[in-house]
Amino acid sequence: MKKLLLFVCMLQTVVLYAQASVENYPVDSASVEHAGVPKGEMLKFTFDTSKIFPGTTRTCWVYVPAQYKPSSPACVYVNQDGIQWKAPTVFDNLINNKEIPITIGVFVTPGVVKAPNANALDRYNRSYEYDGLGDNYVRFILEELLPAVEKQKTSDGRQIHLSVNGNDRAIGGSSSGAICAFNAAWERPNAFSRVFSCIGTYVGLRGADRFKELIRRYEPKPIRVFLQDGSNDLNIYAGDWWMTNQTMERALTFAGYEVNHTWGEGAHSGNQGTAIFPDAMRWLWKDWPAPVKEGRSKNQFLNDLLIPGEDWELVGDKYGFTEGTATNAQGEAFYQDIPASKTYKVGLDGKLTTLPVYAKKASGTAFGPDGKRYVVAGETKQIISYDDAGKETVIADSINGNDLVVANNGNIYVTAPEGVQNPSKIWLIKPGGEKTIVDLGLKFANGIALTPDQTQVYITESATHWVWIYDILPDGKLTNKQKYGWLEVPDNEENAWPDGLRCDTAGRTYVATRIGIQILDQTGRVNAVLPVPGRQSSNVCFGGANLDVLYVTCWDKVFRRRLKTKGVNTFEKPIKPAAPHL
Q: Contact 25/275 with Cβ under 8 angstroms?
């Protein structure tokens, strides 16, 4: 037994020695204090007034370089889990050597909700704040923490002024703090353009394992990323850190991001991160103030659509809630401001006009083969048509509708949500006015569109993440109901809230959702995501003389963007797209 214990002890010593050797990294000169290098000042305060994470308290340190002058807003580096990487010393040296710009460091711990008494435990908010997707944490930084930082003053009375330009801001962390940093830049690339990620937790704790797919689908964002991990990192129930960090690097490279990495043999520690932090900062800030630019993705689906240099353009804003996009035969685009009961038209010259004739609380809009504009009138619960002269005709009464589509044969399909808790109705209105319920049961049926060949119909189910598909029978009724399109859902929501949708001539389907426009291939797979400026998108249509301009309503704003494709108008003759890639 003594020999066995001795052997075990020797084995443990060998393992510890090997691990120590693995974790023994060279020291960068910038990580060491040097005589004659001006030292920045460290400020410290407690932040306990968050409304985004109510009840939490946390400690924040602010590094202010000696060279900082309040007359010029400084660059910013935000680090999760407090002070790491010997960062104040590194910043002293790199700023003194002019290897990075004058940068104020903000080091913040995760929130803790203090227990009410000594017999209870504190609530530790780290995983909730750091590991999840969504914009809660970056909103906390931008709306609460950084304004609190700017209220601080140095010992000699200098007020803190931080740049609001995302190109002047970096963010970093280790483990869960690393995924938190990347997620902040992902959610707000206009606020943080440079990310330092050490032993990043891109695994299945609260959804971060989804990033490796999302990155490949999204239109590239202007973010520069430095990754670090070691081959002896964690491999537990949530995933394999070493493998997921490599997968992240491959996803970022595939999607056209500017990404750099250092791989080692270390465990789940910050040792290598501390060793490489100076070089990571040099690389992240290289060429500053030249902006970090979007790259070109290898996602062919995206490249078949996006035009280099073409971006979202604002059509109009300051609305109540915009919806009901549609296009006439000339390519003029229309949309509704529902609360104001106003209808707007965008001419081929781009000019915006308000129509004198409108339906009250109108939502869904579509043009028919007769050239008339059909709308769902929410206040009167009617389907109404308007001719070019503005003459109004009631097509159907007593339909509490939301959206509609008009086929080339004159059939009208209308979604009637009836609220989230009640089963939705799908109505068919024949050219003679006969109306029939052709489906019942979806959870808030919303947007509706026909396939380009007009043999099937898509319907979005807003209370879920599904786009449903039905076959259209010769009499116009629906059959072969099936869950079809699987949509991405944001972390802080229970559904994708798919709303309006349209098809292009290639058979792609464009769905307005919480995260932007999700684009599906003909088999129902999301191949690409186009984030849209502003709030949640509600509806889409293709307009312009060539039907190559995508119009998107986004709550109080409307945007447009030219693409390398052409939309489908269902009042025209059906077309047969090319067969999909299975």
A: yes
- The sheet with strand 373-377 has its strands ordered as 362-367, 373-377, 382-386, 392-396
Q: What is the mean pLDDT of the chain?
A: 94
As a residue count, the chain comes to 582
Structural contact between residues 424 and 444, judged by C-beta atoms closer than 8 angstroms: yes
Q: Which helix (H) or strand (E) holds 283?
A: helix 271-284
Among candidate residues 81, 93, 113, the one with its CA nearest the CA of residue 180:
81
Work out the pLDDT band at 550, boundaries 50, 70, 90: very high
Please check whether residue 362 is in contact with residue 402, taking contact to mean a CB–CB distance below 8 angstroms. Answer: no
Residue whose entry in the numeric block shows the structure tokens 């691990």: 19
Q: What are phi and psi of 136, to 5 degrees?
A: -60, -50
Token output for 383: 């389907």
Q: Give me the amino acid identity at 419.
A: G
pLDDT digits (tens, 9 = 90+) for 482-513: 999 999 998 888 999 999 999 999 999 999 99
In the numeric block, the tokens 């802080």 are attached to 492
- Cβ–Cβ under 8 Å, residues 146 and 76: yes
8 A C-beta contact, residue 260 and residue 227: yes
Which has the minimum average pLDDT: 12-26, 80-94, 205-219?
12-26
| Spatial separation of the C-alpha atoms in residues 428 and 279, rounded to whole Å | 64
Any alpha helices (H) in 218-345, and if so which ranges? 241-254, 271-284, 300-303
Check if CATH label 2.40.30.10 holds for domain 38-284: no
Q: Which CATH superfamily is domain 300-562 in?
A: TolB, C-terminal domain (2.120.10.30)
pLDDT in tens, 384-418: 999 999 999 999 999 999 999 999 999 999 999 98
Those residues with Cβ within 8 angstroms of residue 51's Cβ, 6 or more apart along the chain or in another chain: 144
**CA 352 – CA 559 distance, rounded (Å):** 12
Tell me the one-letter amino acid at 382: Q
Residue 453 one-letter amino acid: D
Confidence band, pLDDT 50/70/90 cuts, at residue 524: very high
Prior bond of 291 cis (ω within 30°): no
Nearest partner of 79 among 63, 56, 96, 94, judged by Cα? 63
- Residue corresponding to tokens 């081929």: 348
Residue 416 contacts residue 424 (beta carbons within 8 Å): yes
Residue 282 CA to residue 578 CA, distance in Å, equals: 49
3-state SS, 4-33, equals HHHHHHHHHHHHHHHHHHHCCCCCCHHHCC
Q: Which of 359, 445, 435, 449 is nearest to 395 (CA)?
A: 435
Residue 529 tokens read as: 């995501």
Which residues share a beta bridge with 344?
Answer: 335, 354
Q: Please, which residues have CB within 8 angstroms of residue 497's CB and are 6 or more apart in sequence?
A: 462, 463, 513, 514, 536
For the chain, which residues make up each domain, given as ranges?
Answer: 38-284, 300-562
Would you state the structure tokens that stand for residue 166, as one six-digit string?
């995302």
User: Distance from CA of residue 201 to its chain's centroid?
Assistant: 19
pLDDT for residue 18 is more than 50: no
Determine the residue type at 474.
P
Residues 6+ apart with CB under 8 A from 246: 229, 263
Q: Is the pLDDT of residue 2 over 60?
A: no
- Residue whose C-alpha is closest to residue 168's, from 191, 140, 139: 191
Classify 460 as helix, strand or coil.
strand
